[in-house]
C-alpha cells in the first residue's frame, strides 16, 4: 500500500483557507514571518520573509547589502517597530550589541597604561590580549608583594 497524497485545492489557499492567519507567523527561531510571495528577493521557499528585514529595507530605502544585520534593540524578536531596529554593517558589529561582558575592550578601543592596583608602581596595559581588563601585574602575588614592602 502506498502513502496517500493529499493535494491542496487552489481555491483553498491564502485567505480562502480556514487556517489563514493573515500571512503572518512566528518561525521556530522566534522571528516574525510575513507572506510576501515567491518572487520577492527576501522570500524563502514558502514565499515568506523575515519581517524585521523587510522593515529595515523600508528604513534604508534600499535592499540590505550582503552581510548587513538587523538588531532588535529590546531583544524582542517579534517587535519590529522602526524605533526598535538597528541596522549593523556586519555580524561582528551585531554581536557587539549582544555582548554580555561589557567590561571587555571593544575592537578599535584604546588600550591605556594603568598602574598596578596594589600600589607597587608597576605600569602595564589595562587590557590583556583577549580584551579582558587587568588590575594587577600578570602572575603578581599580592600578599608576597605587600610582605616585601613591609621589610
Percentage beta strand: 15-25%
Shape: elongated
- Summarize the helix and strand pattern as letters: EEEHEEHEEH
Let me know the largest β-sheet.
3 strands, antiparallel
| Through-space gap between termini | 93 Å
- Estimated helix fraction: 10-25%
The overall number of domains is: 2
Number of strands: 7
Total of helices: 3
Poorly predicted spans: none
Strand order of the largest sheet: 1-2-3
Overview of this structure, please?
This protein has 151 residues and is of the alpha+beta class. The chain folds into 2 domains: 22-97, no CATH class; 113-150, no CATH class. It has 3 helices and 7 strands; from the N terminus they run βββαββαββα. The chain has helices spanning 51-60, 91-97, 142-150, and strands at 24-26, 32-35, 48-50, 69-72, 85-88, 113-115, 123-125. The strands form 3 sheets. It has a 3-stranded antiparallel β-sheet. A hairpin with a 7-residue loop joins strand 6 (113-115) and strand 7. The mean pLDDT is 80.
Please sum up the structure shown:
17% of the residues lie in helices and 16% in strands.
Spell out the blueprint of helices and strands.
Layout: E1 24-26, E2 32-35, E3 48-50, H1 51-60, E4 69-72, E5 85-88, H2 91-97, E6 113-115, E7 123-125, H3 142-150
Antiparallel strand pairs: 1-2, 2-3, 4-5, 6-7
Observed structural traits:
single chain; 151 residues; alpha+beta; 2 domains; three-stranded antiparallel beta sheet; two-stranded antiparallel ribbon; 17% helix; elongated
